[in-house]
């Protein structure tokens, strides 16, 4: 009897395993290798991005393994999925199955209460508070102020110069716009102090999370701590001004968030959420817009017919203004062709290479198992450069966006998609159009650097896109 019980106890796990396998192939892991624990394929991907072969790296992986594969990225087992259906799954999936979680390095540097980390209800609460400031109806009143920031930037950094390195200058411009409009920081010395620490902070966001003194990750963590201390002080000052009625609720994004109340008259957004989301806005608004403006200038210089069409549209607007009169909301509405050029730039050179989600439970996807706790990785270029979706994808053709309805859903994703689309996309549109207006109407330029760029993790053109510039005679 004892032998029979022992035999049953031995055979039971085997029988259960065989039964589990017979339930179907939907429970098998995707093809691919997890590689070395923690490191996995992280070094290979980062090396490919820094040699401008990141797109080739993910496409070769897709050709080898198909629409889903497993690997290890930035310390965690990961599943790579791609295509329109994958994008829809990522951006519009069931919130009980997939969470909006980033890599551990991003989470450690930006904090765990930003919009990239929050679940459904918390995400909606914080996003709604953000949108009360970032919706078009609210941003209309800030076009003139943004125009002033661009004019001042050109006067300080472009006038009298024969050559300029565009990307570093655009990063200064977009950071100053963020400081002014979103944070209410007007003193140049305070802005420069923020910028120095901020730039060091973002260098290690896509990195292997090894906290050793010589790593980029460790340097970024230390810079993040300094930035958070500065922001805490800034938020506290704004709290005091609101209490003393020395500031208005919509003076800037921080005062707006501090002023938001729920139905019980309690703060809608906590101090920690304000702090972490300010850091997210700093990263998103600083890097994405500066990259977009830079690569628009690069692509305009290589496509004369497109440049002439943009120039004509912008000069028509300039001629309708009095001397020194700032741009207004109505002027932006006339920049339809220029924004199509911007969207085609975003298609060909998306600032965000890809992103991550977290499986909250075991998921059957494409005939395979995505285990609970694994990362889900997606890459923008997989649909942006798909010749079935965008014929001749290597050709720069703004006409693709003449009719937005002709672009298939979840195929063009520079700002994400679905309920988690970037809340700052309208802000980015405004600052891009205002900057391009002044640059194309005030200067002509030609490329002085080669045509290469790398990703670190954002696109960085050779020599920061070095241009020889010449001021135009004002008509």
Describe this entry's structure for a reader.
- The protein has 475 residues and is an alpha+beta fold.
- The chain has one domain (22-471): Cytochrome p450 (Orthogonal Bundle).
- 52% of the residues lie in helices and 11% in strands.
- The chain is built from 18 helices and twelve strands.
- It has helices spanning 2-22, 42-50, 54-65, 84-92, 104-110, 120-134, 136-139, 143-157, 166-182, 188-202, 216-243, 253-259, 271-302, 304-319, 329-333, 336-348, 381-384, 425-442, and strands at 68-73, 76-81, 98-99, 163-165, 354-359, 363-365, 368-370, 375-379, 443-447, 453-455, 459-461, 466-471.
- A five-stranded mixed beta sheet has the order 1-2-8-5-3, sandwiched between helices.
- Strand 6 (363-365) and strand 7 form a beta hairpin.
- Helix 9 (166-182) packs antiparallel against helix 13 (271-302).
- It starts with a helix and ends with a strand.
- Mean pLDDT is 87; it is low at 1-26.
Q: Give the name of the CATH superfamily.
A: Cytochrome P450
CA-based shape: globular
Order of helices and strands, N to C?
Answer: HHHEEHEHHHHEHHHHHHHHEEEEHHEEEE
Helix percentage range = 40-55%
Structural class: alpha+beta
CATH class: Mainly Alpha
Radius of gyration: 25 Å
> How many individual domains?
1
- Could you report the average pLDDT, rounded to the nearest whole number? 87
Might you state the CATH topology name?
A: Cytochrome p450
> What is the correct CATH architecture?
Orthogonal Bundle
User: Number of DSSP strands?
Assistant: 12
The helix tally amounts to 18
Low-confidence stretches: 1-26
Q: Separation of termini? A: 103 Å
Q: Which band does the percent of strand residues land in? A: 5-15%
Largest sheet: 5 strands, mixed
What strand line-up does the widest sheet have?
1-2-8-5-3
Pfam families: p450
Keywords: Heme, Iron, Membrane, Metal-binding, Monooxygenase, Oxidoreductase, Signal, Transmembrane, Transmembrane helix
Membrane topology: Single-pass membrane protein
GO biological process, one term: sterol metabolic process
